[in-house]
Amino acid sequence: MLGGLFGLPFLTDWPLLSTLTREGVSTGTTELLKAARGQIGVTTLFDPAYVSLDYPGGDVPEDRGVCIDVVIRAYREAFDFDFQKAIHEDMKAHFSAYPKTWGLTRTDRNIDHRRVPNLETWLSRRGHELELTGWEAGDLMTCRLGGSLPHVVIVSAPSEASATILKVIHNIGLGTHEEWLPLKAFTDFRRFRFVPDVPKT
Q1: Burial code of 50-81, b = ≥16 C-beta within 10 A, e = fewer?
Q2: 93 against 8, higher pLDDT
Q3: The CA-based dihedral angle spanning residues 156, 16, 181, 45, taken in that order and rounded to the nearest 10 degrees
Q4: Hey, how many other C-beta atoms are within 10 angstroms of the C-beta on 174?
Q5: Can you point out the beta strands (E) in the chain?
Q6: pLDDT above 90 covers what percent of the chain?
Q7: φ, ψ for residue 110 (rounded to 5)?
Q8: Which residues lie closer than 8 Å to 80 by C-beta, 6 or more apart?
Q9: How confident is the model at residue 161, as a pLDDT?
Q10: Measured between alpha carbons, how far is 9 from 162 in angstroms, rounded to an integer?
Q11: Rg of the Cα trace of the chain?
C-alpha cells in the first residue's frame, strides 16, 4: 500500500522500539478506531492544498486530505472533539510556544491544526506524550519521513512478533488506509495518547 514509500530507501538510523502490546479494548479506543476506519474508501486522495475553512468544525472535502486530517476527523466523529478549535485557541494564547517553521507571525485557523508539529506541541503541552514503550491501539504516533517530512498515524494494532512494524490507519499518499507500517522508513518517533473524557453518543 505504501508504494515503496515514494521510492525512498529505508533509513537505517532508527530507534529500537520495545516489544508491543495487544490492541486495547477501551471504549475510547474502540470509538476512535471505528471513526478512523470509517474514512477508508471515503478519503481516497492525498491533497495538501491550503483551503479556507469554516470555524469551528471546518474540514476539507472528505474525499481528500493529508495524514493529520485522518486524526482530526476521527476525533470529531468519535468524541465530538475539535482539534481545529483546541489548537487555534491555545496558539492564540501561547503563540510563542509553537513552532515558527512556516514564518507566521499570527495564528491561522485554516491551517494551524493541520500541521503535525503543532499537534505535537498541543499534545505535549497537556501531558499526553508517552515513552516509546508498549505501543497500544489508539496511540498517536508522529515521526519524520526522509528525515524531515512530518507524518502522523493512529496505531490500530501492535505486533507481538516484531518491534519494527505497527498496524496503523493513515493517509500517506493513497487516501486513508489501514496497513502494516515498516518503522525503518521513519525517524524521530513520538508517542501520544489522548482520549477525551466521554465518547460521542
Answers
A1: eeebeeeebebeeebbbbbbbbbbbbbbbbeb
A2: 93
A3: 90
A4: 15
A5: 45-46, 64-65, 129-130, 140-145, 149-157, 165-171, 176-182, 186-192
A6: 79
A7: -80, -25
A8: 200
A9: 78
A10: 20
A11: 16
* Over residues 5-14, mean pLDDT: 36
Cell numbers given for 19: 516489544
Residues 141 and 133 sit within 8 Å (Cβ to Cβ): no
pLDDT at 97 over 60: yes
> Residue 6 in 3-state DSSP?
helix
Quick one: 3-192 is in which CATH superfamily? endopeptidase domain like (from Nostoc punctiforme) (3.90.1720.10)
Cell output for 106: 499570527
Residue-by-residue DSSP string for 150-169: EEEEEEEE--SS-SSEEEEE
Predicted local confidence at residue 110, as pLDDT: 98
- pTM (2 d.p.): 0.87
Of 27-36, 79-88, 155-164, minimum mean pLDDT range: 155-164
Question: Cell match 494494532: residue?
Answer: 157
Domain map (residue ranges) of the chain: 3-192
Terminal CA-to-CA distance of the chain, rounded, Å? Answer: 33
Residue 165's φ and ψ, nearest 5 degrees, are -140, 155
What are the cell numbers at 131?
A: 515513552
